[in-house]
Write a structure and sequence with these properties.
The protein has two domains: 4-221, Rossmann fold (3-Layer(aba) Sandwich); 227-330, no CATH class. The protein has an eight-stranded mixed sheet with strand order 7-8-9-3-10-11-13-12, with helices on both faces. It has helices at 46-54, 80-86, 98-101, 108-120, 124-137, 143-146, 156-168, 186-203, 214-220, 238-243, 248-255, 324-330; strands at 4-15, 18-30, 35-39, 62-64, 67-70, 73-74, 91-94, 174-178, 206-210, 223-228, 231-237, 305-309, 312-316. It is built from twelve helices and 13 strands. By secondary structure, the chain is of the alpha/beta class. A hairpin with a 2-residue loop joins strand 1 and strand 2. Helix content is 33%, strand content 23%.
């Protein structure tokens, strides 16, 4: 049984012109100990998917799924109290902006200790001792003295480490990291990512890492899921996807990597933007930006289908998946 099983997950928001589907028919499974990278441009539905898994999509958003299960439990049928028991303990999330996720009115020590006391039933003394250990484990110097600090008294990198300490305090089985290094400078980004990967491996957690950094995904993830306009367009092992991308959008993302510029004066770019609520095309949602589109792409939406490449099976949403010859011709 997969740790996390998602079938046909959709998240819609009402607008003046009808419902907007921010997440559209997502299918995904995550096994114990997996590290899955989720990539795609802003507006692709990555963060909303994470919030839907955690049960944090607020009104007026509507979440539907044929199956949304964690460790065999149907999350769509759990009450609010039952979801609270899972969130922060068996499932945890690290958000993009630590300063907007931490409560500015309480010390970081109080916020970490609160999670431990609620979920682990620790006494105040035990929770304080454990909080000091957690802050030390995420690389915060003089951790005992930092317990009394408020979020605004710490740097962005320190606050992100506090968020990681809170999220991993109860040793969750599934950790969702939603662009955890977005607001940090480059040197701190590398430290935070190394820390997350170390914690994932040492605790045997499953982790879903949302990021714009394809280099990070290449170095850390076992599997990669590529999202576009709320849909999964490709899912393969990291090695297979980086060596032989099958979807034109995946190819475009990889072509934009500086290390793949091949001495060009400018990096290749992908014209256009991710379609929103009012400019969604007929047929394949990627067709206005796709150099390989054919007439059928303009009228018939492709389904997410199994994609066997050698001995590996992944997923692809494309009428005409790319082959190595296509990649060579476009280089």
């Amino acid at each position: 049984m997969p740790l996390l099983e998602i079938r046909n997950l959709s998240v819609t928001f009402p607008t003046a012109h009808g419902a907007f589907r921010a997440v559209d028919g997502v299918d995904l499974t995550v096994e114990e100990g997996d590290l899955v990278g989720i990539v795609g441009e802003s507006g692709s539905g990555k963060s909303v998917t994470m919030l839907a898994i955690m049960g944090l999509v607020g009104y007026p958003g509507q979440v539907t799924a044929d199956r949304l299960a964690f460790d065999g439990q149907d999350l769509t049928k759990l009450g609010r109290r039952q979801r609270r028991k899972l969130a922060g303990k068996a499932m945890a999330m690290i958000f993009q902006e630590p300063l907007t996720s931490l409560n500015p009115c309480f010390t970081v020590g109080f916020q970490i200790m609160e999670a431990l006391r609620v979920h682990e039933g620790l006494s105040r003394h035990e929770a304080r001792k454990r909080a000091v250990q957690l802050l030390g484990s995420v690389g915060i110097p003089a951790p005992e003295s930092r317990l009394s600090a408020f979020p605004h008294q710490l740097s962005g990198g320190m606050n992100q480490r506090v968020m990681i300490a809170m999220a991993t305090a109860c040793r969750p089985r599934l950790l969702l990291a939603d662009e955890p290094t977005t607001a940090l400078d480059v040197t701190i980004q590398a430290q935070i990512l190394d820390l997350l990967v170390d914690l994932q491996r040492s605790n045997r957690m499953a982790m879903m890492l949302v990021t714009h950094d394809m280099g990070v995904v290449a170095e850390t993830a076992q599997r990669v899921v590529v999202m576009y306009a709320g849909q999964i367009v490709e899912a393969h092992s990291a090695g297979r996807l980086f060596a032989h991308p099958r979807h034109p959008y995946t190819q475009a993302l990889l072509d934009a990597l500086p290390e793949r510029s091949l001495g060009r004066a400018r990096l290749p770019t992908l014209p256009g933007v991710v379609p929103g609520a009012h400019d969604r095309p007929d047929g394949c949602l990627f067709n206005p930006r796709c150099r390989y589109r054919q007439p059928v792409c303009l009228s018939d939406p492709p389904a997410l289908a199994d994609d066997r490449v050698g001995r590996e099976t992944g997923k692809i949403r494309c009428h005409f998946p790319l082959h190595p010859a296509d990649l060579e011709a476009s280089a």
